[in-house]
């Protein structure tokens, strides 16, 4: 049984932030959960799918975040507590529906959890969604530690039911993927019954149809704003907003989220507990203005600590300007005066710097001599570790083939990239094949546009790429667009049978869903053919056939071609640890640097399973790392790399 | 917390390695063992890209009194467990100090920069010397070699946990390891993990 269910009320567990959020949702008694995978959010839906049977919860991986939010909202409209989960970029996908949802309101408690990634540790941008809460006028909660991640998620459902609107809980990588101690509460017995009531009049929140329509927008919007005022009243009293420090601090530090932990640490390291007061906000929209008024009054200097953009800073400064006649003029430190950076995540060291400057307290973590020597040693002693495809990854073979096909074709063709493990093909491990990289589905959208520029003299072959999960998420509309508008492009679908980047979540192309049940699979090949594309399916490990097919498609200048390169991800549960081939290098045959290939295998293919023996000057296989895919044997022009099928 | 004591509060432990070496599991094990003793434990780590050949580092903060930040401040590590030798140097650069201890697996994993010849992998004897220069105490073990004898290089992580327990840097013992194992793993996997733990502990005691 999952540890998430096992624990008795009052037990103290070491939980990952995402486990704590899951437990909070379970303690709230949710009935519906939907999401789309994305780091650092994916564990929440995964956890829930594992307990869906015992807890009677409908859990799905939806095709994208907008649909996930709609599926969760349907649960709410039918009276059930429901949860939508995504990473920050997913909120942009859901935004259109979310704006309408916030205006129409909800019935059963509905919470949207957004796990965000300041510093873009595993994202292609560090955008965020706090601004949506302000723009779309719904409440925003930000846990400051692991206990709060659980407690706030649970409370968010209650808040949602009190104001009959969606509530957002925002986590960040350093909470979602970090672990800390959590005291768990009770798991309730839930008796949920779903019915959608629509016989009441428009604007009857619980009985009428749930409709956004010109003509009733004004009363809907006014009602929404009234609800936000109710939320703001509740937030004034919330135990998630806390103050620790002296009665009249020299400096008031206002913060939220994981920055709470960094701030506490910095105050502790500098030993300035008696000079700095820490106001930690858990409810960050709407801001608790009476609470802020009270604490802004006890000091003259304020430091606002948050990651990336100055959301709290600007809103608190606006409030301070409004109440200046009451509280006097304050000096603000934060992003605007350059005390804290406006890009990247924060950490205890950045806060130590900020505080030591403001309070004029010196701090040195280690002696200059030690730091200098450690730096010197590291230059020789720790060669960089650039990210690369896993050993045995089908993408390495795919991009080898694509890259070669584009070079042989020799018309300056290029590939538009998309989001997944294969985004790495913008770098050396994918032979710098990708030349554009933006949002989910954007590669094919851009290709569709490039494919219509022939009239302006553009004669480069245009290729886009996507994975199987991304294909369903956002590539389909772009592909329809390209076909309908007769763009001349080739789409390569890297079908590795799962959402590999985030840990093999199910998607509509598979016969299995989030909970492991058998479901109808949607066939990418059949879909593309039905839309009118010319389709080929090849195994990228068959290097010759793949390059041949790609070249044939590049030369075909009539309409949209789709090449599906199908080979299971090297880390998939069914493949992991099982080698197809036992590999070895015949040192007699490998002529290394003297070979015309100039170390093609190690210098260019660069699979981490290969090693270069600088003494013998030959290639070798690291049997600990090699996944036994056999690809390097196909590329060695001397035939020095030998593969033997594993029985 | 009965008799268990920390040498420093918070005690700052870093477990580092390369994606795929299982250091997330190792840090989880250590965290669970200490949390079970009643300590507040925070583990900070980034994964997502970790399976794709990058450096992976877990920060453990262990305290008798409260939850600390998931990121250790620069220069403040007390113990560094490195599953890969050059990763020890990388961590020493940022978190080292003259008081730090280092436990280092000696099996190299070449990065693609090294495989392709753009960068050189340092000699092990230099790494040993540098680690000694930058730390107060250090242990070097060939955990991967022993793990291969157990049938899978991944056991290098548990061997290192066993070795860490034998350094006595933290109140970690075989009993609490066994109790965490029995909660986290299926019964058939317990004996080999215990064996790995013992091998590691033996390597430090010798
Ligand atoms: S293994 Fe093959 S490709 Fe690599 S250096 Fe030797 S001959 Fe060249
Ligand atoms: S067979 Fe060659 S390409 Fe495949 S994983 Fe092993 S070393 Fe890498």
Radius of gyration of CA atoms of chain A, rounded to a whole number = 28 Å
pLDDT < 50 stretches of chain B? none
Return the CATH architecture of the largest domain in chain A: 3-Layer(aba) Sandwich
Q: What is the string of SSEs of chain B from the N terminus onward?
A: EHEEEHEHHEHHHH
Global outline of chain A? globular
* CATH class category name of the largest domain in chain A: Alpha Beta
The percentage helix of chain A is 25-40%
Under CATH, the topology of the largest domain in chain A is which? Rossmann fold
Helical percentage of chain B = 40-55%
Task: Indicate how many domains the architecture of chain B comprises.
Answer: 1
Overall description:
- The complex is a heterodimer of chains A (647) and B (206).
- Chain A is α/β, with parallel strands linked by helices and 647 residues long.
- Chain A is built from 22 helices and 24 strands.
- Chain A folds into 4 domains: 3-236, 3-Layer(aba) Sandwich (Rossmann fold); 242-359, Rossmann fold, CATH 3.40.50; 394-566, Thiamin diphosphate (ThDP)-binding fold, Pyr/PP domains (Rossmann fold, 3-Layer(aba) Sandwich), CATH 3.40.50; 581-645, Alpha-Beta Plaits.
- In chain A, helix 4 runs parallel beside helix 5 (88-104) and helix 16 packs across helix 20.
- Chain B has one domain (11-205): Pyruvate-ferredoxin oxidoreductase, PFOR, domain III (Pyruvate-ferredoxin Oxidoreductase, domain 3, 3-Layer(aba) Sandwich).
- Chain B contains 8 helices and 6 strands, in the order βαβββαβααβαααα.
- Chain B has helices at 23-36, 85-95, 112-115, 124-134, 143-149, 156-167, 174-184, 190-205, and strands spanning 11-18, 40-45, 55-63, 79-82, 101-105, 137-141.
- Chain B has a 6-stranded mixed β-sheet, with helices on both faces.
- With 206 residues, chain B is of the alpha/beta class.
- In chain B, helix 1 packs parallel to helix 6, helix 5 (143-149) packs across helix 6 and helix 7 (174-184) runs antiparallel to helix 8 (190-205).
- At the A-B interface, strand 1, helix 8, strand 8, helix 10 and helix 14 of A face helix 1, strand 2, helix 2, helix 3 and helix 4 of B.
- Bound molecules: iron/sulfur cluster (SF4) (2 copies).
- One iron/sulfur cluster is lined by residues 585, 590-592, 595, 597, 599-601, 619, 636, 638, 640-641 of chain A.
